[in-house]
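Researcher: I'd like a structural prediction for the single chain below. Treat it as a standalone chain; there are no partners to consider.
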Amino acid sequence: MYTALRLQRRLKKELRRAREGQGGVQVVVLGPDPYMTYQPFLPEAAAGSISPRHVVVPLRRVLPHCRVVTGEAKAIDHARRVATVETLATEHTGTGPIEVPYDELVLAPGSVSRALPVPGLADHGIGFKTVEEAIGLRNHVLEQLDIASSTRDPDVRAAALTFVFVGGGYAGVEALAELEDMARYACRYYHNIRPRDQKWILVEATDRILPEVGEAMGRYAVRELRRRNIDVRLETRLDSCENRVAQLSDGSRHPCRTLVWTAGVKPHPVLAATDLPRDERGRLRCTATLRVDGVEHAWAAGDAAAVPDLAAGGTSRAGGPGGGPVRECAPNAQHAVRQARLLADNLVASLRGEELKEYRHAYAGSVASLGLHKGVAHVYGRKLRGYPAWLLHRAYHLSRVPTVNRKTRILAEWTLAGLFKREIVSLGSLEHPRAEFELAAGTGRHPEGP
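Model: Treating it as a single chain, here is the predicted structure.
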C-alpha cells in the first residue's frame, strides 16, 4: 500500500493518460483483503481502546488512481511475467484462477504466523496477526469471564480464568499486557471474580523478552509484568496443548481455554510459488536498491525481502567482511515502510532511465506498550519506561498510521477513552451472524419468542 501511494503521487501524469486511454501506466494492487492492517495497533483494538475499523486503511479510498483487486496470487511465473490469481469472482463462479500479465512486479506479502508441530496447537491455538484475530481474542477473553462467573465446576472455572501466551516478542507481550489490563478492569462488573483469580502466563523460549528494546528494558518489562502477578516463564517452551492443557518444558501443566500463539513468523507461502531466488529462510534475496537479486523487473520489501542493512555494516550480496554473511534489515515496520517508499522511487527511476538509490536507514530504536499508561522504549540511545514510554509509543504510532482520517479518529477515541469507562461487551455472536436465524428457521420459533 505504501509503495502504491508513492507511485500514485510520482506517476500522476502517466496514470491520467492511462485513464484517458492514451497509454501511460496502470498500477494494480492485489491483496486478499480490501484494506491494509496497521498491526502495531492490534493490541489496543483487542483491548477495546481503538475501534477495529480504525486499525485498517481501506485501499480503494486511499488509492483512487490505482486498480485494486481483492484476490490472492497462487503462483508467479516471472520468466513469462504472469501472475496466476484467484479472485472472489473466480472462487464463486468456479472458473478457476486467471492469469494477470505485468511489466514490473512488486512483491510485499509480508509474513504469516510460524506454527510449530506442537500437539494440539492447530486445534486450540489462537493467532494474533490480523484484525479478525484481535477482535476474536477480545470476545473470547470476555466470554471466559462469563463462563467462570456462571459455573459451579471449579475445574471449568480455573481453566476459563487461565490465559497462556506463547512468545515474548512485541505481539505476545503487548497483546497479553493490554488484555490483562482489560480483563482486570472487567472483574469489577462480576460479583464472583476477582483479579487475583485470573492466571496469566507468558512463555518465552529465550532468556529475555522484547529483545528489540535492549536487555535493560527487557528486564524491566519482566519485573513490571510480574508485579502485576503475570507468570513470566523464560527459557521455557510449549511442549503440548492437547485436550486444552498447556504442558510446558519445565514440567508444569496448566489446564486453559485460551492459548495465544505469537512465537515467530515466516515468509508468506506465495514466495515458494515463484521462480525468484530465495535465501535459506525462504525470503526473496534482494539488493540494497530493493531489486530482487539478479532479476530484472522484480522488486520486494518488508518481511518477505532479505535486504542488506548498509547502515549496520551490511554489504553487497557477495558477502560481508571477511566473506561472512550479509547483515540484513530486521523484519519490522520501521524498515518496511521506508523500504516501500524507496522502492517506489527506484521503480519510477528505472522507468525513466535514472540512477537507483540504495536503502540505508540507521535503526532509531523501539517502543512497546505494557498496557494502559505503561511501556518501555529505547530510542536513539535513550531509555524510557512507564508513562513517558507509553506516551512515546502512542505518539510514534499515531504519526505512522496512514491518512489524516485515521489519525483523527484514533486520537478522538483515545480522548473519549480518557473521559468514559471501558467497554466490556463481548460480541462473540458476530463470528456466527446467521446462527440466530438458522435456529429460528429450523425450529419455527421467532428469535424474540419465549
